[in-house]
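### Sample
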Amino acid sequence: MIRNYFKIAFRNLLKNKVFSLVNLSGLVFGITACLMILQYVSFELSFDQFQTDIDRIYRVTNDRFQQGKLVQHGTITYPTIGKTMAKDYQEIDAYTTLVNGGTVKFRREKSIFQEEQIFYVDDHFLTFFTFPLLVGDPQTAMKAPNSLVLSESNAKRIFGAEPGEYARLIGQSLYVDLDTEPFRITGVMKDVPATSHLRFGALVSYETLVRTWGPWVKTSWDGSDMWHYLKLKPTADAAALEQKFPAFSERYFNGDKVSGSVEKFALQPLRKAHLYSDYEYEIGIVNNGKAVWTMLIIAAFILLIAWVNYINLATARSLERAKEVGVRKVAGATTGQLIGQFLSESVLLNLFALVLALILTVMLQPILNEMVGKPLSLSLLTGQGYGGNLMALALAGVFALGLFLSGFYPAFALSAFQAIQVLKGSFKRSAKGIWVRKSLVVFQYTASVVLIIGTFIVFRQLEYMRKKNLGFNMDQVLVVSGPALTRWDSTAIDRITSFKAEVKRYPAIQAAASSLSLFGNRLSRSFNVKRVGSNAEKGVTVSQMGVDLDFFDTYRIKLLAGRNFITTDSNPDGRKVKNAVINLSAARLLGFSDAVSAVGQKFTIFGREWEIVGVVSDFHQQSLRHPIEPIVFQPFYTNGGYYSFKIASTDLEKTIEQIKAKYQAFFPGNDFSYYFMDEQFNRQYRDDQVFGQITTFFSFLAVLIASLGLFGLSSYTISQRSKEIGVRKVLGASVTSIVALLSKDFLKLVLIAIVLAAPIAWYAVSQWLEDFAYKIDLSWWIFALAGVLAVGIALITVSFQSIKAALMNPVKTLRSE
């Protein structure tokens, strides 16, 4: 019986090729889009899921308040916090502390290896987290100073070691940057999974910091560079533990007397660290959780649109199949058998579409991976992604449910025809069935219009951020990383100055500068900064940036008052530097009415006085997600900073080679690495750009699928009115009037969809824009433009069939009837 169902179903699909092709195309595109989006969503949701005790692991966050104002919302805090909390609260089972060591170069014999990210971690780290060691003891690997654990990749890259040979590396030595003391390898670990928010290629023992930075890294209550993670006992309640933290702050910080800030601590679950972090000084890889869940909603919409197409097209063919149902019923077919027959057609078409969608997904996989910059694959949906095997089962269940529901309604509707009415020729379409089909069309276009509006808003915001005046000019600025392997000495500033002067001799170089940090980087902060002579008892918080005397001219940052730095402001001994330039926001924060009144005044940082010699205009140090920072600029130099060169030449390759030659002459033994400042700055918008590209691509697919459905539905509807069209033409109706008559019913549905979509889209994009400190206004014309575009697409889709019907010879139409 079932075999017969599928045989007849296959014949029906071949018999109605246009119907089958339209339906199949919609399903293939819909399922493919859904599979591709779900890979991305599964990857993002699976971050840190490999951690054995993820549900018990939290990281400590620290908000700092001065004069009742939040001055820092961060994940870094003081070195004593994790250890003290573990001592004070029995709910805590374990803790670990780490410091971001940045990128370093490894030296072995005469070889220097490219930069690698390292963390300084305590001796709890390898037993706290699930980062398995392949060789070495996780209990002791991080106990001694200068202990080093390498990843598998680095073991191979540096030592050429293959699996099974790692044991020979234990005890061998490596040098890090310019450190003269060797680091002893105590372990080799598996490469960190791509879905870990903590990404690193090597670990160095925390005890090393005690030797290099001093004992404060264990005892300080006001030096803030550490990240702390806590593991709670299985029965502990994180919310209840958080309620005890205000007392913790009062006990150890006594208001703001210890650190200069009122400290508020909280716990963030590890499972939320990747997608729900709005914190400063983020140590891990983060993404926008709203965007990820939006992608999941888009996937659901696209799949629903595809299934709605099937329902609409199948029920629209009801008149064509009515006689078939009538004959079958007269021949003795039961309602159950008819439902089984029509469900078989649905199953066959959906399974064929699934196979084609899987093939298409595999073919498009490289394009998708390049677009999002992530290692996606179908394996993320079959056990290796979020939820493991439950994800695969859930997807199979959703597909089966959707297949059944999309096939059940048409099957039920078609099998319900009365045989006598059909065979007598008195069968008519039910008003209820027409209403259902119209409702489904409205749903399809509502979803499509929401996606169109969302795409417009995303790209307008990205364009706004790209074109907005940031307060500095970064066009054609080449940035070269400083010589980390050159030692700092009394001649360092002269060497840096000479290098810049030599490069500036090239006609293509307009300006050159050096700095400790650059735009887009999170700057260090100083708390409890006070204006000298002010009556204010409380200090303020400012960011700090080390720059040379050419920095403001190179980036064309406007000087508002006072002067720029001069040569005598700098000194190889940083303790002798006393002059500073501040931006306008810092001047206002310190209580000055304008830029001019700030010049010549003094302020203190950590009790040391600085004189303001100049005030520059504000600029956006970070992306437009962040407000402008109050910044203090100090004339500091370092070998490990950055060089910025303003280039006026179109022959960039030649200019870069010239700079490289001078760099290698002044700083032998250092790698020459560079990038362009605008490219680096705009990387802050990478996730937003990916989100925009994905929404654009899949919005186009959603509109295409909806249009396919509308095309098929209009085709069948118009074919049923062929006699009416013939009569109207005989009576003198013009082609234009017939096209308008046939199109208006569908356009009414699209207009209803636009009205429904507008508030939904407004709410959705408003939520997305909340993440930006600077954003576009939601102008009415964006919604109107999306509506006009939707109407245009629908009109083109329907008009094709309408014009074809209106041009048909009425004699032929009426004769065939």
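The mean pLDDT is 85. This sample (FtsX-like permease family protein) is used throughout the tutorial notebook.
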